[in-house]
Design a protein that fits this description.
heterodimer, A: 261 residues, alpha/beta, Nucleotidyltransferase, domain 5, 2 domains, five-stranded mixed β-sheet, 10 strands, 40% helix, 21% strand, globular, B: 415 residues, four-stranded parallel β-sheet, 8 strands
Chain lengths: 261, 415
């Protein structure tokens, strides 16, 4: 097993992310693809693509950890860890504690507290409902017949917004239909949806100290940060490529184990 | 349990004796129902069982049946039948599972002991110390069978148990005697009550010792073991066989302690469980903790059958005090102080609070107790959401990930 490289796979419900790091933890290559229905295939493809982007041809000797909902589907991973630990580890690569990490994922949101020693002190995940996650925005984009990638632009250009609930994706969908019928502008509705995501985060837990936002939803919809800033006075930051923080964290844990074995 | 884990774990040998006792308990009730040889009283799990035994009743505990419905996963199948006659899915899922199973004509006792139905009550006796739902539960059967229902209404949110609390409960218990005499046909005998209270005292002292074995490092039993082995303390207290059983169990556990045989191999972390068990997921949770080398060594729930106050010299007063000193009826300050003591004495690394949707009285996370505890004791806490019986309220993957992430958090502190 080489000590020079390590890898991480984050097999989420929506997308699979892969990262290759060098012995300093620098990202050499990464890849993101839709997880689809076969997590094993997705993880194989994502890993090969990450190696390709890093210019590495042979992967046999690289230590890989996996995380995420489908973490147990990664057959070549030597260890699995939860996405809670891996997101925290990824963020600690860029920022020092104390901080609150907010991860907005495909089907779950996480709020993770890190103290000033870099030790995780608590965490919360959404419990049963996926309102306020990536799946929520995907569902709403379909209802509005708007491409997912256009949402951020629409929300950021809006000069007003409609008020929508944050309690349930289905209820919010009904509210959206009512707004359409009453003639609300499309961009106002999309901004209302973004606010719904922010409200969901705010009701999950306290957001103390520096707030670090991660996840695919932020990667593709950075306007959410502007909206969150209107609610809390904290410093709000994002790492480069917030979508791959879980995979990076898994890779960094694998790297750490390289040096312990 | 996976086959691999079965091989790794050393089973508790006393379990076979417990199974015999439980079979005898249910078969005796079944026989009494069929022959009418002895009257049957239904009693809530922390109801005045000693008084009922002293009056000559066989005592049946429907909460135990509720737990069996949960553990066998029949509960989720039969709860909708209770909902269909008007019992809300939001109320106690022991109640809805039990009533649902009655309406469907099913019981886990059939598969376990060949018994066709739960024993019909001649009288129903409740104590609201667990919750108010028990009186509604028993009222269903009182209407169904046209039998008397009597109960004790316990004070709630108690700080220090005062004399007036005890006096009130004593009066309520004594007021039951004429009704019990009329149903049983026996005269109340204070000396017989003293004998039963003495047996309950012996049982509860031994049960405390069983649970205190969990303080050993490594612990010789888990919370999941205790939820099974508490059965005699619940349904056989006041009877000599419960006393003999716990002597046997303690002997085995103390051997394990001497040999440093942990129930979880290579125990790394020690947890406290607050709230109800998730009966339908005992095995999965037990297996997960085993694989994580983490032992849940203490719990509020299993401690609920420790009744230190029993005293045969003052049977009524001591029963009243014992059933009022319960954790579940105490105020927040008492509960916090109580848990702090167990957490310190059992070298606990973290606390899991189970928020059971249909059991608010046993869900102590709802007024920020976990957050206060984490700050006060510098100990991590985790809230998992589920239910005692209704698995529709339980998200398996979310719970597994939360527990795994919690143990990873504890791992941060292991050098």
């Amino acid at each position: 097993m080489t000590h020079n490289l390590a890898g991480g796979l984050d097999v989420g419900s929506c997308t699979t992310k892969s990262v290759v790091v060098d012995n300093q933890g620098n990202i050499l290559g990464w890849h993101v693809l839709y997880s689809g229905t076969d997590f094993e295939v997705a993880s194989n493809v994502a890993w090969k693509e990450a190696l390709l982007s890093a210019g590495i041809s042979s992967c046999d000797s690289i230590h890989v950890f996996s995380t995420g909902y489908g973490r147990n589907s990664v057959k070549f991973a030597s260890k699995t860890m939860t996405e809670i630990s891996c997101h925290a580890r990824g963020c600690l690569h860029y920022f020092k504690g104390p901080m609150t990490i907010v991860d907005i994922g495909g089907q779950d949101n996480k709020i993770i507290k890190i103290d000033n020693n870099g030790v995780r002190t608590s965490f919360k995940m959404n419990r049963k409902c996926a309102a306020g996650t990536g799946a929520f925005l995907e569902e709403m984009a379909v209802r509005l017949r708007v491409p997912l990638e256009k949402l951020d632009q629409l929300a950021s250009q809006a000069d007003g917004e409609v008020t929508l609930g944050s309690y349930c994706t289905v209820f919010s969908g009904t509210e959206v239909l009512e707004k359409i019928k009453s003639g609300a502008a499309l961009d106002h509705i999309v901004k209302g949806l973004f606010h719904s995501v922010v409200k969901r985060i705010l009701e999950m837990d306290t957001l103390t100290d520096k707030v670090v936002i991660t996840g695919g939803v932020i990667e593709h919809n950075p306007f959410l940060i502007d909206l969150l800033k209107t609610h809390i006075p904290n410093e709000i930051v994002t790492p480069p490529h917030p979508q791959i923080m879980g995979a990076l964290g898994a890779a960094l844990y694998a790297l750490q184990e390289n040096y312990q074995t | 349990m996976t086959d691999q884990l079965k091989h790794l774990r050393k089973p508790i040998a006393a379990t076979s004796q417990m199974k015999k006792l439980m079979a005898a308990h249910f078969l005796e009730l079944d026989e009494a129902q069929k022959t009418g040889r002895q009257k049957i009283a239904w009693c809530t799990s922390v109801g005045p069982a000693e008084l009922l035994h002293a009056m000559g009743f066989l005592v049946y505990y429907p909460e135990n049946h509720g737990a069996l419905l949960g553990a066998t996963r029949m509960a989720t199948e039969v709860i909708p039948l209770a909902n269909a006659v008007g019992y809300s899915p939001d109320i106690c899922s022991y109640l809805t599972a039990d009533v649902g199973s009655y309406l469907k004509g099913l019981t886990p006792l059939t598969k376990a002991y060949g018994i066709q139905s739960v024993p019909k009550a001649d009288i129903l006796v409740y104590n609201t110390n667990q919750c108010r739902d028990v009186q509604d539960w028993f009222s269903f059967y009182a209407r169904e069978w046209n039998v008397p229902i009597i109960g004790i209404h316990t004070h709630r949110n108690i700080g220090k148990v005062e004399d007036f609390h005890v006096t009130d409960i004593v009066l309520q218990m004594k007021a039951m005697i004429p009704v019990l005499e009329a149903v049983s046909g026996a005269k109340f005998d204070i000396d017989r009550l003293r004998e039963v209270v003495d047996l309950s005292l012996q049982c509860t002292r031994l049960w405390r010792r069983v649970l205190e074995c969990g303080a050993a490092i490594p612990a010789p039993l888990t919370f999941f073991d205790a939820t099974i082995h508490m059965a005699p303390a619940v349904v056989l207290r006041g009877k000599p066989e419960a006393v003999e059983y716990y002597k046997l169990l303690i002997s085995e556990l103390e051997d394990r302690i001497r040999l440093k045989e942990g129930a979880v191999k290579n125990e790394r972390h020690r947890l406290y469980w607050d709230g109800m068990p998730v009966w339908g997921k005992l095995r999965e949770l037990s297996d997960q903790f085993y694989q994580l080398k983490t032992n849940v060594v203490a719990s509020t729930y299993c401690n609920s059958w420790i009744f230190d106050a029993f005293d045969p010299k003052t049977p009524f007063e001591s029963m009243a005090r014992a059933y009022t000193e319960l954790f579940i009826v105490r105020d927040e300050s008492f509960k916090e102080s109580y848990m702090d003591n167990w957490i310190k004495n059992f070298s606990i690394d973290g606390v899991i609070f189970h928020d059971a949707k249909t059991c608010p009285n046993n869900s102590n996370d709802r007024y920020s107790m976990p957050q206060r505890m984490a700050k006060r004791l510098s100990i991590p806490t985790l809230v998992i959401h589920g239910d005692l019986n209704d698995l529709r309220c339980y998200s398996e993957e979310q719970t597994r990930t939360n527990i795994e992430a919690f143990v990873e958090q504890l791992d941060q502190k292991v050098p």
